[in-house]
Amino acid sequence: MKSDVPDNRNRISRRRLLTAGLAAPVATVAGAKLVQHDMPWQAGLANTPAQAVTTDSAEPRYHFFSAAESALVEAAVARLIPADDLGPGALEAGVPVYIDRQLAGPYGRAERWYMQGPWAEGLPTQGYQSRLTPAGIYRGALREIDAAVARASGDAAAGATFARLAPAEQDRWLQQLEDGQTALDAVDAKGFFALLLQNTKEGFWSDPIYGGNRDMVGWKLIGFPGARYDHRPYVAKHGEAYPLPPVGLKGRVAWLKSE
């Protein structure tokens, strides 16, 4: 079945992201530094995502992925948005943790989606068309990708996996998935790649409370101020550098210290 995620034909790159309009200019200002030590609202008055991860969390604990699955996802997202001279990539930003939390929750179970027939192949405009949940798509695809890599190695007993391939070989496999050249029995290869790419971008730019965008590296890359509650001092400061670091829904770690 077709995924509802658009088919992206070219590998994602930082420069593509910056030149594709995702990094819209932010109003900026030079001048006095805003010092804030406490959250400007009372904590605990709103619902927060289940199994949330903060930006200063320790080594991630996966709730959905097995060890083999997490190794494949970590390797794949590291190739989709790699670390470079502009900063950390998807792996360093905790994107696998974001995807894991999503698949372990209502999104992964498609709890709020219509998931009944008919099961005919649909058009892209008709939305999600798979009878599998997102969690089911990942579980089937990850298993079959590693099996395909092992078969292609000519020695399945040697334990060849996607995560153990050289980066250039990983890129080749991802390209084949994107183009539909690698056949997967349980899921549509192109649909899975599109879903993985979509979730990778979501995790790189979502609020850190969901597990990705660790240390707000995605927001810093494009100059996004985050969830600051008051921008009035800077609205009229056109064309000047915005002086404040980004803020997530849970604030910033630096707010707990003197600045």
List descriptors.
single chain; about 260 residues; mainly alpha; about 35% helix; disordered N terminus
Provide a descriptive summary of the structure in words.
- The protein is mainly alpha-helical and 259 residues long.
- The chain has one domain (14-26, 50-225).
- It is 34% helix and 0% strand.
- It is built from 8 helices and no strands.
- The chain has helices at residues 14-19, 67-80, 95-103, 106-109, 134-153, 167-179, 189-205, 217-222.
- It is globular and about 60 Å long.
- The N and C termini lie far apart (53 Å).
- 32% of the residues are buried.
Outline:
The protein has 259 residues and is mainly α.
Number of DSSP helices? 8
Residue fraction in strands:
under 5%
Provide the gyration radius in Å: 20 Å
Number of strands: 0
Give the helix proportion (percent range): 25-40%
Q: Main β-sheet: number of strands, strand sense, barrel status?
A: none
Unreliably modeled segments: 1-6, 23-38, 50-57
Distance from N terminus to C terminus (CA atoms, Å) equals: 53 Å
Total individual domains = 1
> What class would the helix/strand composition place it in?
mainly alpha
Q: Helix and strand string, N-terminal first?
A: HHHHHHHH
Roughly what is the average pLDDT, rounded to an integer?
A: 81
Q: Which outline best applies? A: globular
